[in-house]
Each structure stands twice: as C-alpha cells, then as structure tokens.
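---------- Forwarded message ----------

FYI, see the VWDE protein record below. Original note from H. follows.
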Amino acid sequence: KLTSLALQPVITAELVQGRAHLKCSYRPPRSRPPLQYAVVWSRLATPGTQEQIRRDTTPHTFSFLEISDENLQLGDTVFCTVTAFARDTPEQQSLPEESKAFYAGIKFSPESLQISEDGKEHILTILSTVPITCSGHDDSCKITLQLHTEDLGDQLLGPPNIALSACQVDLVPATCSEGSCAAAALTVTAVTDFAQDGNRISRITAEPVGWRNSLWRTHAPKDVKVTVRDLPSGNCYSFTDPHIITFDGWRYDNYKIGTFLLCQSVSRAFEVHVRQWDCGGHRSATACNCGVAAR
C-alpha cells in the first residue's frame, strides 16, 4: 500500500571537492527496516510545468546534484521528489514527497520594496544561494556585480526614482547558511524630486562582470521591483526685495545687505546661502537677491 512516511525532503547548497552541488536531504522513518530511496531531480520549465533532470536510487538519506551546464543552469528553480521502498519489495513504494522550490543563483532580498519619498535609507541584500567556485582563477575569489536602475513607467518622467549607495558590489564566498553562500548589502533611497508625479515603479538589476566561467557569465540574476510612493514636498521662497516664506508658511522681509544662510538641514550636509545687495536707489532702502549658492 502507498503510505506517507514524512520524509520531508529539503534542498540545500554545498561545496563538494571544490565543485558546487545541490543536496536533497530527507528523514528516514523510525522503526523501519533499511530502505532504498528514489530521488527525482526536476526544474521549473514553464510556470506549473516541471522537467526531470535526473533520477537517483540510493540507500542514503541524501542525494547530490552538481551545478553544471549539463545538469542545470543558474537561475533555475529546482525540486527534489523522494519515494521510499524496501529492497525486497521495490514495487511497494511510499507516497512521493516533494521539496520546496529552491532558486539556484543570485537574487535580491527582499524581492520587492515599497518606499516613500522621505529620504529614508532601506537595506537591500544581494545574495547567491549556491557556492561560488574559484578554482583556476588568478584574481581574488569573488563575483563583481554591476547594478543598474530603470524606470518601468512613463519615460517622459525623467530618470529613475531611486538612488543606490553603490554601483557595484562584490560577492565573496562564505559558508552556506540559511540559503545564502555569499551576500552583500546596499541601501536604496527614493529620490525627492519635488514633483507631484504619483507613485512610480523602478527596477534594480545586477549583472556579473569580468567573470570567465560560462556558468556565471551568462547568469541573469533576479531583479527587484521598487515601488516609490509620492509624497508632497515642502517649499520655501525668497523673492523681490526680498520677501521670505519659510517651509511652514511663516512670512517676513529682510532688507539687509550681505550674505545670509537661507536654509540649512539639521540631518545632512545641505544648505543654501543667498547674497543680497542694494537695489532701491536713493529713495528707499531695498535689497534684492543677487546671488545664490547651494551645497
């Protein structure tokens, strides 16, 4: 009879003799005679459709699959399905149990972001779920990723609505743990554009550069979509002779001659200086803006 043995297969990544492998591990059932296990490795070919890669029969509670051009490509979503049977009765098998999907390659975490035009920095991690192999390379063992931003909305709105803290990041190999074999972090900030342009969606992509191994060179990591929520911006003014309106709407006049600090941020290196000069002639003492400097 077909029975469920709660094998609970799980896919992890390991470096075996300098080569990257995926490992399908499962629990042996208690108080049972020694069993054989049939492990079927498959990948997601199209949404909802799996394609078999390899079938393995083993007495062990694990099965390895090497990440190579022959078996699977980086960027594939992989599954392993396990059934158990006694050696003397191979026709009586347990119910097949499938692992959770495992994405093999480079991806962002989180996979999407929702931020606002408020100047806050948001941490974005880019990681490799599989080991980075460096055998035969003279340069330092790492993968350099070039980062790009792209606006997915109306191109007439101008440049992307997000700014990154780095244009390149390096993935340095580390011990595989909790789905990450190498990771780097950067920050994403929404650009405060002083425009009422509605919510906009941008995309961040990563491209491996300078890597000679074909397995990595042709890999297109998963991108991340960033939704930027538009917020109203504040305005302040200094105009005519000159009248000044502050961010909170307070109004006053400044008829003095000289250079003044018009605006200064208390949280970042940003300030505006204004120079005022006599422009009223002999009849009245009036000053006008004649120069401005912003940092």
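H. also flagged this: The first strand starts at residue 10 and ends at 16.
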